[in-house]
Amino acid sequence: MTLTIYNTLTRRQEPFETVEPGKVKMYYCGVTVYDYCHLGHARACIIWDVVRRYLQFLGYEVTYIQNFTDIDDKILNRARQENSSMEAVAERYIQAYFEDMTRLNVKEADAYPRATHTMNGIQRLIFELEQKGYAYPADGDVYYAVKQFPEYGKLSGRRLEDLQAGASGRVDAEDPEGRKKQEPFDFALWKAAKPGEPAWESPWGAGRPGWHIECSAMVRDRLGDTIDIHAGGADLIFPHHENEIAQSEAVTGKSLSHYWMHNGMVKVNGEKMSKSLGNFITIRELLDRPTDPMAVRLFVLQAHYRKPIDFTDEAIAAATNGWHTLREGLLFGHQYGKQLGWSQETGGQGEQGGQGSNSSHQPLATSNSPDSRLPTPDSLLPEVVQRFKAAVNDDFNFPNGLAVLQPLAKELAREGNLLVHQGKTETSPEELQRQWYTLVTLAEVLGFTAEIEPDTTTNDGLSDTEIEAMLEQRQAARKAKNFAESDRIRDELQARGIAVIDSRDGTRWHRN
Ligand SMILES: Nc1ncnc2c1ncn2[C@@H]1O[C@H](COP(=O)(O)OP(=O)(O)OP(=O)(O)O)[C@@H](O)[C@H]1O
Ligand SMILES: [Zn+2]
């Protein structure tokens, strides 16, 4: 049962083999910091967070680097609008990024290099490219000569002839860069300073780097010539990642990354959620509605990471319901552990326990590792762990991994309900303890954490099981044509923050 990964480069799912045994070097192309992050960025960050967590769970020592692009026209425009500086804008949105990601329980990367802090590495790469004949200066700019790199197009599957045909129509006299380029598909490594814009001294004159070279330099500085996993959104395959390969591999003569992984887009009515289209919702807007951050995580992880997903209010409501079930399971031990007589003596692995979880990195947010006040059993349920791994090892199939955890959570919630109403459970306390501990440990691999305090977004005070029971009573009343009673139940649910929706497919509900 080994991990296999779909590799964009080879267009195949391949067994995962690392350059160095037991170690993974991973780089994720992070955000351009000119505004608050939106749900699309959240999806990317959550997916790569969980990929990293899962690799750690398997026992790998993972070095995870995520960059901030802090030089960019969009940041400059924002600075101009606000009469501020590029540094101030970038700093503000980097801060906001950390706030948002903490709320979503995204673990901190091992380092967050920034373009502005990597100027030496960037210039060194451009210099080497020029020396080797892959780059040419033109009027204070420096361009990459795409034709010099015969493998150009290997990641995206695009052919130079097609690019030429596509690009030639767009290069005209109005495009100043176009006139400096030898070929229309050549791209800028360095751009000459424009009046009033931030600039750095360089052998080609004052200027600033192009976007693609930043990442090549940051990967090399932080992780070396060849890494294991290079990740990013599918929108970056071309030209960004194609260009990174062309730059890095031309200089080193080695493969830049063995595996290229890409997440699918969050879409709205079939179009990519993006700032430029204006069809976005920021993470903070969504969370302040309020939406439980863990429901956002569930919304993301319920879909396969490579597939596009549509953002709709309904989808978030469904994920919120799913999260409430999972949450009930995760809280089981905290709610009933004492009553079930889980003794302190059974403790085995301590607070941070968790089979295979050898991470030395602390999450940004508080972890939901089993509460240190509660005892932990000696082991997880091997059969459940086995099924979870078998699911996720198949190209990080998180939806299938979740499908292993959800029934376990449901079952614990049911047992909790029995305990409350009948004073006893069907399953033995020892077995329940192992089930709960297994659930909590595996849920944490997916980054789910349940607060022990009642969740502020659920002020109705009703558990899922109670809501379902009321809906059953309502159904019975309707069957008996006692509509006064069925309406009364619906109104009561409504008053307690639960929306009830009747449709031809049955009755659904969600918390408002
Ligand atoms: N709608 C989306 N769905 C999933 N991932 C996305 C989405 N938008 C951006 N990403 C990913 O988030 C990361 C940071 O992207 P970046 O800051 O370059 O945003 P962008 O694509 O320019 O978005 P925008 O145009 O909205 O600013 C990249 O890996 C990118 O692929
Ligand atoms: Zn990049």
TrEMBL record:
Signal peptide: none annotated. Zn(2+) binds at C29, C215, H240, E244. A motif ('HIGH' region) lies at residues 31-41. Residues 342-379 are annotated as: Disordered. One of its GO terms (biological process) is cysteinyl-tRNA aminoacylation. A motif ('KMSKS' region) lies at residues 272-276. SUPFAM superfamilies: Anticodon-binding domain of a subclass of class I aminoacyl-tRNA synthetases, Nucleotidylyl transferase. It is found in: Cytoplasm. It is an enzyme of class 6 (ligase). Keywords: Aminoacyl-tRNA synthetase, ATP-binding, Cytoplasm, Ligase, Metal-binding, Nucleotide-binding, Protein biosynthesis, Zinc. Residues 387-452 form the Cysteinyl-tRNA synthetase class Ia DALR domain. Binds 1 zinc ion per subunit. Residues 361-371 have a biased composition (Polar residues). One of its GO terms (molecular function) is ATP binding. SMART domains: DALR_2. It comes from the Bacteria. Its EC number is 6.1.1.16. One of its GO terms (cellular component) is cytosol. ATP binds at K275. Residues 347-356 have a biased composition (Gly residues). Pfam families: CysS_C, DALR_2, tRNA-synt_1e. Its cofactor is Zn(2+). Monomer. Belongs to the class-I aminoacyl-tRNA synthetase family. This is Cysteine--tRNA ligase. It comes from Scytonema millei VB511283. The gene is cysS.
